[in-house]
Structures are given as C-alpha cells and as structure tokens.
Description:
Largest sheet: none
Number of strands: 0
Structural class: mainly alpha
Helix content: over 70%
Order of helices and strands: HHHH
Shape: rod-shaped
Distance between the termini: 20 Å
Amino acid sequence: xxxxxxxxxxxxxxxxxxxxxxxFTDKCLIDVEEKIDSIQLELNNTLEQAKEVKAKVFSTxxxxxxxxxxxxxxxxxxxxxxxxxxxxxxxxxxxxxxxKDDLDVEKRRHSSLVAERIDAISNLEESKDFKKRLECExxxxxxxxxxxxxxxxxxxxxxxxxxLVKEIDELKxxxxxxxxxxxxxxxxxDLISRLEELNRQYGFKQR
Length: 207
C-alpha cells in the first residue's frame, strides 16, 4: 500500500509538470504567432514597396514643379533615377530576404512548440490514466486488508494461546512443588519460545 501511495505522489508531480508544460507552451505559441503576424505584415509591405519601385519609370517632368526638364538635364536625370531605382530595389529585396528568413525561423519554432504541446497533452492523459489505475489498485488492497482484519481472530482467543496459558499456569504450580530448577527453566524457555512464535503469527493484526 505504501508503495502505491508513493507512486501516486510521483504521478501527481508528473501531472503538475505536464500541466505547467502545456501552460508555458501555450504562452510561447501566442508570442510566436504574434511575431509571425508582425513579420508577415512587414514583409508584405516591403514586397509592395519593391513592386511600386520596380514599376516606376523615368519621367521628364519635374515632380516638384511639374515642368519639363531641360534637355541638358535629361541624361543626368536618367542616370540618377536608374541608380536610385537599383539601390532602392536592392535594399528592399535584402530586407525582404531577411524577413523571410526570420519568418521561416519563427514558423519552425511554432511547429516545434505545437509538437511539444501534443506530447505534453499525451503524457498528461497517460499520467491521469495511470493515477486512476493506481487509485483503483490502492482501493482494492485496502478492501482486502479490511476484510482480512474484520475476519481475524485475536491471538488471545486462539486455542493455541489458551493451551500455552494453561501450560504456563501448570508450570507455575509445578514450580511451587518441584525444586528441580533446570527442568523448570527448560520448560519455561520452551513455553516462552512457543508464545513468541504465536505472537509473531498473530501480533501484527492484534486490536
């Protein structure tokens, strides 16, 4: 019975640990999902910016004043625009690549957390089932012990005990009449030994 109680205590500890694991995993999943959404939003904005830049073409009209550029400035203006477009697209593409890498990392982390949560739930259910079996086994053993104790005959009521008591009384009477101490001591030791053996058989259940 004590062994089963120890197992139940250990199982309770495991159940608590798995419950904490699920709680912590759920918390991490919320954080990761929020981070994934944030990265995905920034990535979408970056890709949209790159799309807009890529669609831009050189205009001979000044964006500030709306006037046509002088012919002397067209070639330089075209070079400046092309350089800006290439550099801007490079930066946006580099940023998009970094965001995609971050997104992949968080998605892998999310998958790992989901797997950990599934394992924790499975282990939790197994531990709960194991605890139920232990509790049933403990209840059965307690019932068996109660039945044994309820049907137990106290050692004082056994015929063996009564016989020994009678022999001890006879020995006491004999001691008053017989001076042969060696014989008396031998008989006494034998009776005490038999009485101790009887107590070992019944004593653990005495009430």
